[in-house]
Design goal:
alpha/beta; globular; 5-stranded mixed β-sheet; 5 strands
Length: 166
């Protein structure tokens, strides 16, 4: 009798968790599908924008049109954070990048790419360890950093891609 009750409890828990996860996934998918990308590459002022391959090609770098040379399409410097939800160092870096997005609102765009959802982008950018950030200047080659950066390391990388107007 105990085995029957335990089996029913496990089956019920499995059905419930499957329903809860799929409901969450479908609501997340629906919200991202209905949210059309901005008319340009600007993330919302002071907010980090989660992007996909289509957004990357349209507003940052069309790696299919220019596969051998990085040609930045943005209108201001950018930071692209390659991360995963399960990654502890990525979760620690997130609030620091949110602070940067607010501090440099309207001056630097900050983007996030989930490597589990965008393996093509992770492959194109050679992501082998996360978190990995690209600091993209208006002209020139992006600067790649690895790991949970300290605030002073982030500011040092920003100083290489952005010069405040005087």
């Amino acid at each position: 009798m105990k085995k029957v009750i335990l089996s029913l409890a496990l089956i019920s828990a499995g059905i419930f968790s499957t329903y809860a996860c799929s409901a969450k996934a479908s609501s997340t998918t629906a919200s991202t599908e209905t949210a059309a990308p901005a008319a340009d590459d600007k993330a919302a002022e002071g907010a980090i924008k989660h992007i996909d391959a289509a957004y990357m090609r349209k507003f940052i770098w069309d790696y299919k049109e220019e596969p051998t040379k990085f040609v930045f399409k943005g209108s201001r410097p950018a930071i692209v954070d390659f991360y995963a939800d399960w990654c502890g160092p990525c979760r620690r870096l997130g609030p620091k990048l949110e602070a940067v997005a607010k501090k440099y609102a309207g001056k630097i765009d900050v983007y996030k790419i989930n490597v589990d959802k965008e393996p093509e982008l992770a492959n194109i950018f050679g992501v082998q360890s996360i978190p990995m950030c690209l600091f993209i200047p208006m002209k020139g080659t992006p600067i790649q950093t690895l790991g949970d950066l300290a605030p002073d390391q982030i500011e040092e990388s920003i100083s290489q891609i952005y010069t405040p107007a005087k």
